[in-house]
Specification:
582 residues, homodimer, twelve-stranded mixed sheet, globular, 19% strand
Chain lengths: 582, 582
């Protein structure tokens, strides 16, 4: 089989204006960005809002290996399969981050014959939305340090006289807004900034800071959760970046930087229209990383797609404990929209990896035996898939399991897994998907199963309500959403919880950051762990995004590069074509 | 008069494909990026290279005030004036940096009725080239720290066994590649990275680092100086990022990251086509900052423009000691192309500011008296303009002085200045430009003067030759190019010079970073200082760009935000339009 990039390059694509028109957009509702991308204007919603809303399908997965189990392949393949059944359909996915692309995991365009194209444009800068988020985020960071520097340099009174502004008296020890960069850069996790060379004071004042990957920026969450430009502006102004010397919150509005941040994201709020290899319209919008962010693409894109098509297929990052949980408990509330059906992607590889019978280490290649038939491995790992089926079912959403076939998989073992799922007591549909090798043709069975489940009534129920206390919300996610036994807050987190309650931020949702490689917060616990504790080491207020962010276990918000990163394979050839991107 | 952004918004623009076609590009030679921008494919050069080359005009200036004297206004106005005289013409300018836009100076689209439009797209992300440079730069930085981390973690031998790579044995004390960000962020000038929390070693190793503004990245220089994609790839691979424990240079090629960096800049190498308010095609490409970079737009854009039009108007940043010097001594050599005429922009305000009679402080508003007629101020400041006329003349390039009129300027004083210039012994043309208030119509006199001077033979001579020693090159720029008496190298710079000579990098050009607010390296020395010394505190090898970079005086490669930054005025209004951008 050809490489992903070669398949993509040799598949003829339609001009993006043809895709846009056939998807139901009018000429003044999009602007082409080159031949195969277009920015979709939010003004289209004024026209199409009255349309009947199509079905909304959320693709999730069992607990994945570090390379992923093919959720995007399945999302794209399913959309292509539905199109082959003559239903109108959109795929809605997030923009890939350059961190994984140059690190270990590689691109995020899907793969094989189920890709968003051109994959190199999707995987690299696309239309610059992540850069816009990064720029707006770091502008606020520069604004904080400049403000403290000038207030300290001049003294509060002189500062006020000279500038006509009110001194903000920010406490440099209570700055919660870090900086971001869209790379895996371990060395920037913890930094000291404003460092002075002996005798020089040009940098102002020294303090501890750190960089997160851009996907973890609150602005990325806001981009996904905003309903329109004015909502974006308002949410940005609510961001709390620090506390002053009296312990009161300081917002970007206080810094008078919220307007400029919004201006910097004015183009980013428009979803980017692309196409799959089979010409299915695909909206790409907002950020990835369901482990350290909410990990779902945007409400705006879903809104446009569901008002234009019979079916909209989107995905939430990692397993159903991760992006799916956040789609249901954070995004669905902000969108006032919930899934009509969930697809859980499972693979033979993923089941075996969850059996506990293999020696899997992060950053290491996966053992070849993982692809060999292994009855014991399959059975042991099946508990993980069962857990995810039960988990999704508790939200009241009809379930389809998609067994994503890898080329190496044996027919016999695939059929065996299918039978195991069919024999479950739950009302679950199952289909083997060959979307990778065969495109939409390989996903027809899956498409039929999804259409069938979409006819059922979804009785969607999130895990908690707005009026619940923050503590109850954290418990709801950990205990009902992960199956944990208990939650323990560090002293720091406990203090932060008290402060958040005092400041009146108790009506927000909660967004837990944890490893995606286990249902628990310990990546080595495979299968369906139970009786575990969820240790929360720190809480962060994301008042603009509308949630309190909880860091669980030793999860890190800035990945590192491995010893032999993927960037080593990437280059241009003598014709100027990109090679090695996958 | 309306604000810049209101003028821009109320002026009807042509669709960019009409601009492209009327400029002589064929449909397959550009890709529209929205309605008013297009990326121009380098493949057009294959077709047009055989065309006769048009005249190449370089706009420079007297020593400016911190707000600039209107070089871009004059560049755009002149191009519009030439178009009104029925000559085919292109403007070629650099992409603005977000640092000054959100800091003090504001946008860089020109102003009044001589702007590149839409100004908000030009001033913000445009087509993402600066972001691509930033991303590629920081990928290399992450690659360096990750490599050292893994080599130290595993030990050289185990690293080699495990990865199959050769250990690079980079000396963490000799890393010359910093990180970059496109903001004014004082706090990032000097940082400690890889800092560990007590007991934790997840970040690897701690070291001193710093951030430059993206415009100062060697990659930005490479983007401007590369002739095509393969040249870009080769130059990127030649970048020296560090030295190993034996003192030998380590390149991005050694890190196997040069290919991925090139891939990240693959779209950035295509210039962005826009238009002026009067429909003159404008190519926007590469980075600004002639103080801390070479400060000129790209060779590729010039090459396309000069093969399509009778006249190409471009600009070099700041005064003729800055961007113009680098255009002549660095860019002209790499391009094998030199200016046929230079325009020196002068203003009444600028002359008075150079008189030494006013109390001007960086970061403070300029005194209102600067706009009142003042015979003594004009006469005293005239020495600065004379210096720049002599400076440009020594390169053998015919000169036009453009007096850029501000609305407040008196007719009488403008005529007086014009007469003073006409009375000079040099063969200089002079014209008052009202390009700001009247567009091309206000620049007709200037356009005629430029066309006249372009008929003369330019006898272009750079200040030094390739075979000259690095020391001689530094002296040539300081003594011939600035009028200094002497050059002193710090001990550090002297050691670096010795090392560069030993390593065989003596055939490179030199790029001096210094204040743009004086011809000397001391920003307080106004007018035409003489008998000064140029202190060089540090040398940096830019082997990919093809020059040795010299830091003079106390010049800083990362600006800071002022106490009341421009971002405070920028916002969206209730219709979603940008306000406050200028």
């Amino acid at each position: 089989m050809l490489s992903d990039i070669d398949i993509c390059r040799t598949t003829p694509l339609s001009p993006i204006d043809e895709i846009a028109h056939s998807a139901g957009l009018e000429s003044n509702e999009f602007q082409s960005q080159g031949r195969y991308k277009a920015k979709v204007s939010l003004s289209c919603l004024n026209r199409i809002k009255a349309h009947r809303k199509g079905k909304f399908v959320l693709v999730t997965a069992m607990t994945p290996t570090p390379l992923g189990e093919g959720k995007t392949v399945t999302t794209i393949g399913l959309a292509q399969g539905i199109a082959k059944l003559n239903q109108s359909v959109f795929a809605c996915i997030r923009q890939p981050s350059m961190g994984p692309i140059f690190g270990v995991k590689g691109g995020a365009a899907g793969g094989g014959y189920s890709q968003v194209a051109p994959m190199e444009e999707l995987n690299l800068h696309l239309t610059g939305d992540i850069h816009a988020v990064t720029a707006a985020h770091n502008l606020a960071a520069a604004a904080i340090d400049a403000r403290i520097y000038h207030e300290q340099r001049l003294g509060y009174e002189d500062f006020e006289t000279r500038t006509g502004l009110t001194a903000l008296r920010i406490d440099p020890k209570q700055i919660t807004w870090k900086r971001v960069i869209d790379h895996n850069d371990r060395a920037l996790r913890m930094v000291t900034i404003g460092r002075n060379e002996e005798g020089k004071t040009i940098n102002g004042y020294e303090r501890e800071d750190g960089f997160d990957i851009s996907a973890a920026s609150e602005l990325m969450a806001i981009l996904a959760l905003a309903n329109d430009l004015q909502d974006l502006r308002q949410r940005i102004g609510q961001i709390v970046v620090a506390y002053n010397v009296d312990g009161l919150p300081i917002t970007t509005e206080d810094l008078q930087v919220a307007g400029a941040m919004t201006v910097s994201m004015k183009e980013a709020i428009e979803p980017t229209l692309m196409q799959t290899l089979e010409g299915v319209p695909t909206l790409v919008h907002a950020g990835p990383f369901a482990n350290i962010a909410h990990g779902n693409s945007s409400i705006i894109a879903d809104e446009i797609a569901t008002h234009l098509a019979d079916f909209t297929i989107t995905e939430g990052g990692f397993g159903s404990d991760m992006g799916f949980e956040k789609a249901c408990n954070i995004k669905a509330k902000a969108a006032n929209n919930s899934p009509d059906c969930a697809v859980i992607v499972a693979t033979l590889r993923g089941l075996k990896a969850n059996s506990g019978l293999y020696d899997l280490r992060p950053g290491q290649a996966m053992p070849a035996e993982l692809f060999e038939p292994n009855q014991a491995g399959l059975s042991a790992g099946f508990a993980n898939l069962q857990w995810h089926i039960n988990n999704v079912s508790q939200y009241g959403v009809p379930v389809v399991v998609a067994i994503n076939r890898f080329p190496q998989d044996s027919d016999e073992e695939l059929q065996q897994l299918k039978l195991m799922i069919e024999n479950l007591p739950q009302d679950v549909e199952v289909a083997i998907s060959e979307a990778f090798a065969k495109g939409g043709e390989g996903a027809l069975q899956l498409a039929r199963a999804v259409i069938k489940q979409c006819q059922k009534n979804s009785t969607f129920t999130p895990l908690y309500q707005t009026q619940d206390s923050l503590e109850d919300k954290l418990h709801a996610v950990a205990i009902k959403g992960y199956g944990a036994k208990s939650v323990s807050l560090s002293d720091k987190a406990q203090q932060q919880l008290t402060q958040l309650n005092q400041l009146g931020f108790d009506k927000l949702s909660v967004c837990l950051a944890k490893t995606p490689l286990s249902i628990s917060t310990d990546s080595t616990k495979k299968g369906a762990p139970a009786n575990f504790d969820v240790p929360i080491r720190e809480l962060k207020l994301c008042a603009g995004a509308g949630f309190v962010y909880a860091l669980c276990g030793n999860v890190m918000t800035m990945p590192g590069l491995p010893d032999k990163p993927a960037f080593m394979n990437i280059d241009i050839d003598s014709d100027g074509h990109i090679i090695g991107l996958s």
